[in-house]
Amino acid sequence: MLRPGSSTPVLTWGIAGVAVLLWLVGFIAKGTTVAGLPFEWLVARYDKPLEVWRFVTATIAYPSVASFTVVFSVILGVLFFLLNGPSVERILGRARFMAIVVASGAVGAAAMVLVSGFGFGLFGALFGLLGAYAIQAWTYPPARARVLITIGINLVLIIALGGGSLPQAVGGLVMGAGATYIFQRYEGRARSGARTPYLIIAAIALGFVAIAVIRSLAS
Fold first, then answer.
1. Of 21, 136, 142, 149, which one is least surrounded by beta carbons within 10 A?
2. 33-69 burial string, b = 16+ CB within 10 Å, else e?
3. pLDDT tens digit sequence for 121-146
4. Contact between 99 and 56 (Cβ < 8 Å)
């Protein structure tokens, strides 16, 4: 199951499982916060811009609040992540899959911080995977149509929930599509350049995070 090249979507299940587990733990480990300690420690916040690890950990953070909006967001994010993640993980491989999840989640969180919000949840990473799949399937009209419809449905649902996560979704979508395009450009190149696309993607994601940090410090 865990062997290299296995078709089992270990990373997809693992990321979704950790997000749900931390959300549930937050109902027990409240501390002095309403949303739970895991959320308090991991969420990307505009008022704590120098704690840059939060831009990465925000993907697995959800507020442990039993409101309809939060519960529906958790269910929606986890469900669509589990529906779409395995295909992308198998197509791209685990290293590229993880790079896209981390970069898209960080850029999505940075987009929320840029609008003075809190970045959290799977939506940034989810839309990153949808963007990645769209690039992969672009030359196959039926698959392209399916992924574009899925993106549209998710955007409509986010807007129906108030649209607060829209910057996160758009940021993740753009980063995921861009990262996949970069991977395609370096496909089949010499082994010495294997790390180049990862470095470029990391630099772009760090650039967005830096912009969010600078803006937060200046405001």
1. 142
2. eebbbbbbbbbbbbeebeebebbbbbbbbbbbeeeee
3. 999 999 999 999 999 988 888 888 98
4. no
